[in-house]
Amino acid sequence: MQYYQYCSVLTIAGSDSGGGAGIQADLKTFAALGCYGTSAITAITAQNTLGVTDIHVVPPAMVQNQISAVMSDIRPSAVKIGMLPNTETVLAVANTLKSYEPVPIILDPVISSSSGKQLADNEALLAMKELLFPVVTLLTPNLNETAQLTGKHVGNVDDMIDAAKALLNLGSRAILVKGGHLDGAELYNVYADQQGKRETFAYPFINSLNTHGTGCTLASAIAAYIARGQSITEAIASAGVYVNIAIKEGQNIKTGEGCGPLNHFFKPRKLAKLNF
């Protein structure tokens, strides 16, 4: 009998009890794109469509044990990292991952929730810059995160390009600055890497209240497409289209009283099989 492996992706992130962002959005995205999702939870948040009301940080040793349990048995083809609430968690993640054979890593540097709740302290951000930025495959900050990381206001596409260059100077291998918070008929994401490649991705703006978890979903989709064999820029393009359609397909859905989630399963794919 011929045996196969599922195309597996690991997410290291916080849990969203409302199901719209974090681990829950990541696993939905992996499944929708035909990947087998595994997880290591860094924090448990009490949240819904109206915001975050409480956060419980998972002990770093438990984060490390979750990652090791997955990496030693269900080898992922890519890793997505989200919420890392403190320095100890950053250290646990960085040290654990480097003890295994490298795989592509997408880091979404979650600093605060869409409702404004602080999700990572300043020391954690400094630790990410030192320990993770130089080793991850792609960094995917939004405009607010980019401004905090660079110390500069980002208000247009030219600012995004300059910010991407500044982040490369911090040692990152490749950057995708997400422009979802800019006004206009189109949305832009700006890519830059250490090899000098620059690319701008444009998508039509969709007027929807249901955009909770967009950043998590994009980073997870990029990881999933890379796991399925696409290059970084191919994965960014595919993931952008997926997220754009997921927003469009979810804009008339009522989930809770606030900002609802995307429709991750508008066109789910079968689990991809790899030769064993």
TrEMBL record:
SUPFAM superfamilies registered for this protein in UniProt: Ribokinase-like
Keywords carried by this UniProt record: ATP-binding, Kinase, Nucleotide-binding, Transferase
A Pfam family matched in the record: Phos_pyr_kin
UniProt-listed Enzyme Commission number(s): 2.7.1.49
Pathway(s) served: Cofactor biosynthesis; thiamine diphosphate biosynthesis
InterPro entries assigned: HMP/HMP-P_kinase_dom, PM/HMP-P_kinase-1, Ribokinase-like
Single annotated GO MF: phosphomethylpyrimidine kinase activity
Domain of life: Bacteria
Main enzyme class: transferase
GO BP, one annotated term: thiamine biosynthetic process
GO CC entries: cytosol
Domain Pyridoxamine kinase/Phosphomethylpyrimidine kinase: 16-263
Listed PANTHER family: HYDROXYMETHYLPYRIMIDINE_PHOSPHOMETHYLPYRIMIDINE KINASE THI20-RELATED (PTHR20858:SF17), PHOSPHOMETHYLPYRIMIDINE KINASE (PTHR20858)
Stored NCBIfam families: HMP-P_kinase
Name under which the protein is recorded: hydroxymethylpyrimidine kinase
Gene that produces this protein: thiD
